[in-house]
Amino acid sequence: MPAKTILSRPVYGTLSPQTGKSHLFVADAEGASAILDLAKKAPDGFFARAHIMFIPDTSRSQFQAALKALKPAQFYEGPSIAAALPRLRQTLANAHMGLRIYLAGTEGLIGQAMQVALEAGIDHSSIQTEHRGSWARRVQCVHCKGITENVTTQPATCAHCGLLLLVRDHYSRRLAAFQGVCINAEDPSEIPQKEEIFR
Amino acid sequence: MGINFRQETFRDDYTFRNSPEFVRRFPFPFHEDAYMYAVNIEPHVQGPKGTVFENLIDVDEHYVSEMRDRAIVLAEDPLRCQSLPHMTLAGWDLLELLMTEKANSYPDHFSLTREGDRWRWINRPLGIDDTFTFGDLSTLPYGPMEYITRQSQGDFCILDQRDGNLWMDAGMVTTQADWSLDFDIGMNFFEWHAPVPLAHEKGIFTRALKFLTNIQQGKPARRLNWTMTINPRLDTSPENYHKWGTDRATVTPENVGDKVHLRVELQSFWRLPRSNALVFPIRCYLIKMDELVTVSKWARRFHRVLRDLPIELAEYKGLTRYRPTVIEWLSKYDDGAPTSPGFAPD
Questions:
Q1: Which InterPro entries match (chain B) (predicted)?
Q2: pLDDT in tens, B151-185
Q3: CA–CA dist B223, B182 (Å, integer)
Q4: Is the confidence at residue B305, as pLDDT, over 70?
Q5: A69 and A150 belong to one structural domain
Q6: Does residue A155 share a domain with residue A69?
């Protein structure tokens, strides 16, 4: 997923150890496994200068111990992406030249952490990303501007204004969201069936 | 010698129309009987009298009413005008460009007097007489981009140029053909064009970007783009799509002439001197089918273009629902005779 894409849609890669003075990892759920895979290729002492921020979601017992075993200089475990973002903001505000950033996990996690990094003045192309886990989308309703989290269906109902939205592939890094546009604006009596496609 | 500004509306009772001489100057966008994307960019130089190219920044009979419509849109949704923090200097550049072009081209309607940084701007059609300090934000009621684009027809995108790309970092967008500045702000050239079908594969955007990043100060360029709009509505934004989308289902053989409009964008591209940004004014012209068919060459040609348009383009432009009805209506004006090359009426 998704084979055919458009140029505003983020392209994710594979995390690999970068040359740098320090390393910040932000991951959720199965994103932890991307960090563990990177660790196999990392030079000795790499994690002694690393800060791992992990949002376990439902995968708690599976990854937490393995991540801690990497012995990062700092390890944080948060209950949700939203709860982790203030810490991420402060970490970036206090960061020095030579910090490398690695984001792994769901599109929502990568997008929101990227958004905070952009606000801190970091160029998006310098950030390593790797997708693991759910393809659920964050969607901005173009009509009311509300953001609906964890959208898995096409179409989807806006959690704010209730319009039935076509979820497009058009993506904004600044908003960390896909665009949702009313699917039945031309004939509101047409109510297409929802299909579960972003899993 | 001044322009007779029409009092008209682009919503509710839709009293917009073109007077006959403005029909003749409409920028008809098809130079042949078929349409496909091309990098159709040419130098933006002055054209003949009686065309929209007579002046590089065109002011026409719809000016005052269009500015009233823009003010309504902005009161409802201020997010239609946004400027990222590093774009303020480009806003001043744009203010200078529009004021000087208008004052030079339409001295009956606009005047600009400069004494050092102290500028006096008079806009007679809108009843504005302001004195301000160029570069000092505190001396204008809005930021410079918003101030001058509340007084200028068309949408405006200001693009920052860096890393060999163009970034949509500021804009005033209230008359758009279905794209959202609030969503696209901060994107690069390829990203904000990402939803456009077919053109990426043809290499259109790669070539266009190369051309645009090389535009020099004092040598603006232009191209025409087009779509169709039901009712003369300027604000066909995605933001309000759920309010105007139903209009597309109201086209009948009886109302095509009055309700269906060809919508042409005159996009021009200018290098700004201080910021090195580019500004894209996207000027929208509307013409009713009843008005279009008064020029028989345009009627024949538009019938053929619409009939033969690739389905992907028809869908992207949102024409699918009413295209057959409009083709049928236009066919009455197409006797199959050959058309002369070029845009102009015969």
A1: HODM_asu-like
A2: 999 999 999 999 999 999 999 999 987 789 999 99
A3: 24
A4: yes
A5: no
A6: no
Please count the structural domains in chain A.
Answer: 2
A143 → closest Cβ in B239, B246, B248: B239
Find all residues with CB under 8 Å of B174, minimum gap 6, and list them: B69, B70, B73, B74, B80, B81, B155, B234, B235, B237
Out of B184, B185, B249, the one facing A187 most closely (by C-beta) is: B249
To 5 degrees, how large is the angle CA A54–CA A56–CA A61?
Answer: 120
B197 in A contact zone (CB under 8 Å): no
A33-54 residue pLDDT tens = 999 999 999 999 999 999 999 9
Residue A29 and residue A98 share a domain:
yes
Domain that holds residue A114: 22-131
Residue A30 and residue A99 in one domain: yes
Distances (CA, A) of B270 to B45, B161, B219: 12, 12, 7
Q: A14 in a domain, yes or no?
A: no
Say whether B242 and A163 touch across the interface (CB within 8 A): yes
Q: Is B124 a catalytic residue?
A: no
- A113 and A170 inside one domain: no
Q: What is the pLDDT of residue B343?
A: 86
pLDDT, residue A4, reads 63
The residue in chain B having the minimum alpha-carbon distance to the alpha carbon of residue A181 is: B238
Whether A57 has a pLDDT exceeding 90, the answer reads no
DSSP characters for B208-259? HHHHHHT--TT--EEEEEEEEEESS-S-B-STTHHHHGGGGG---TTTHHHH
A5 lies in a domain?
no
Residues A55 and A123 in one domain: yes
* Residue A56: strand, helix, or coil: coil
Specify the pLDDT at position A2: 45
Q: How far is CA A123 from the centre of its chain?
A: 16
Q: Which of B17, B80, B223, B300 is catalytic?
A: B223
Examine the domain organization and report whether A106 and A192 are in the same domain. no
Among the partner-chain residues A8, A169, A186, the one whose CB lies closest to the CB of B321 is A186
Q: What would the mean pLDDT of A150-156 be, rounded to a whole number?
A: 97
CA angle centred on A45, ends A43 and A48, rounded to 5°: 135
Any B CB within 8 A of A183 CB: no
- Residue B246 and residue A181: Cβ atoms within 8 Å? no
CA distance A73 to A1: 35
Chain B interface test: which of A5, A6, A7 (most B C-beta within 10 Å): A7
